[in-house]
């Protein structure tokens, strides 16, 4: 169901008196519409989901925008200022589906609920409206619903902090995943602001309105587009930041949080203020802010992230990305941790080695790794379930997710018992052992086997946990059996075998006996006190008892009472959940660490990866390196195996070949693949993974730059060549000795000599100024002469073989330089028409013979090119010193009459025969 008729529901009659339903031009808005307009005025930037009965309604421009975004019918309801009021709505029970689509399109939604019973509104008068209020703002960065979240991707809300005064010019970023409680921050600067934001890849970026007036920041905000949400500067006020943070965490001092400057406090406080604004009365449990120090992770600029397709391909798909190729995790928490490590590889060799030790442990304990993955597989997402419960949006199944997580943790404890573990896994085991056993037992005792989605459905408390609840359920579900048992008791007590307990809508439950048997219930004072007369019939008498009346009340209220008891138990479980939130979150994170380590061991074993040596040297020596994505794609296609290649950029390597490799070779020879694979190997090594190589020795890379592929940015007036130059400029300005630079075809977007000049100068600059490790691919074969001048530069090429006019790509990297690019052969393979290919061969042959642009008219003279393409082109005979040539030269056209010109033409025709 996507839409509904818009007549008022029964529950809304108090809201919408019929006499004012169609307000005219001069009439006041209806009370309900007045309420809507007042609430909407407070949330002008959000679509207002206005609760009316079983629907969320939208009016005016909100309705028009939502109907277009969701593809639902736009209707109308009454008039306002003489105009029809546009309206559309969505059912409450499917609202999450519509929210998902709206959030995905960049909308923000204010959810407005009825906060009182409609019956209470009726008591105040016929024109009174049901009280409503916004209970939360749903924004891209603050969602917690399972349907709206990608289980394999963190959902970050990021805040930009900036202050005036002594710290003017300093910037800080804080980011929160409200669905897991993760809270981090770092200092940044205008020149690296975009890179730091894109590394985190937030769903929503909150900035002060004043940031748009800062010329150093504005270009970055324009680049980010719709994820940017400006807010009033008061949210970022540093003077009140400390108090806001202390109030949120319930602490008297921030001494235990670490030292923060004013800019950092502005970002942290801004994050908390925005959460308070969007979550209204709820307070999501957040970890304490954790600082990420500059240089602790490998710097990868946005262009490099895109070019290397780390998280998604250039077309935006996860399939074909590095993350997809290496992900073997079995839990949502593990998948998110893997993505986090992939986007922020470490620069500390000791921390990298600790992660590698975990992978090595599981490679040596394959049965243990299999048992761990079996225990974790299918475990629901504990961190996100915890957050939903803490903010009041969780249900019984979220408690069930925690219960399943505790059961998995128990199995993990048993698996690792008595094992000598590396440091990272030992720390994870300690966090798992610290999970609250009493809370786990409470969940085990309390929760039923089958859990409903919503707590209002009831039935989620285990039978036997609460005696009164069991009784109410028995009354609710087995009222006939209970009544029959009471009837049997009365029959035995009175001796009247025909005694019946009956029910009607007037008397409710009553005892009925025939007139002849009534004496057993009335003859004695004791009987009269016990059986109360209700009604006399012609042939029967009806009675009740205090016990029967109480049972009737219990039966009538049993369902409500049962649900009330369950909801009270649910709230008590929530209280225990929040009290144990830190321990639960730490244990869940530990399971994620184990999942990632075991998954990387599976990857290494499955794909034949090796453990790289990572240290503080400047070495970069890879033997038998492979591209992790392409290799797996070839295996799936059952194609030829991937050709492994070595790469040694080490300044003191055995080959001493050079820290910069100038790579030449044909198109389709594999140059781009070779460039990318070495960058990806460096990333995998520094995130703590094994790598696709026979062996690898990598000195820490602090910055990774890649300029591969062609793209434009027409929205900002940048051509393909301009984008290439901007990215190249960033590399040349920022790369240092520890950087790894990957450059492909610099200068190809302009005239040949211009491009060659730029590429030539760039290589010299990398060699002399940046002094970095670099791979530089080019089709400018003239550049190979640089190896004679630059000591740290070596020439390598992609090997090919020619066979009967065709080219065979060997995909092997070898020392030396290519003298041609085989572009025409590649054009033929791509399917260009034969005429084009043959003409290209002819032009290429002439150019290679030394015909310069000054003689290009000799080539142009052959036009039209393809008129008789099926016939071989005949070479014209030389006509020097011929009679025809002499006759033509003797003619002076200006001296000829028309008749003489015609006669001359006939003479020339005879001479040409």
Automatic annotation (TrEMBL):
Record field: transmembrane: none
Residue span of region Disordered: 1-27
Example of a GO MF term: mismatched DNA binding
Keywords noted in UniProt: ATP-binding, Coiled coil, DNA damage, DNA repair, DNA-binding, Nucleotide-binding
One GO cellular component term: cytosol
Domain of life of the native organism: Bacteria
Coiled coil: 541-568
Sequence ranges of Polar residues compositional bias: 1-21
Annotated Pfam families: MutS_I (PF01624), MutS_II (PF05188), MutS_III (PF05192), MutS_IV (PF05190), MutS_V (PF00488)
GO biological process, one term: mismatch repair
Keyword Nucleotide-binding among record annotations: yes
Stored SMART domains: MUTSac, MUTSd
Gene3D superfamilies: 1.10.1420.10, 6.10.140.430, DNA repair protein MutS, domain I, MutS, connector domain, P-loop containing nucleotide triphosphate hydrolases
Record's keyword annotation contains DNA repair: yes
Family to which this protein belongs: Belongs to the DNA mismatch repair MutS family.
Function: This protein is involved in the repair of mismatches in DNA. It is possible that it carries out the mismatch recognition step. This protein has a weak ATPase activity.
Designated name of the protein: DNA mismatch repair protein MutS
Species of the source: Pseudochrobactrum asaccharolyticum
Gene for this chain: mutS
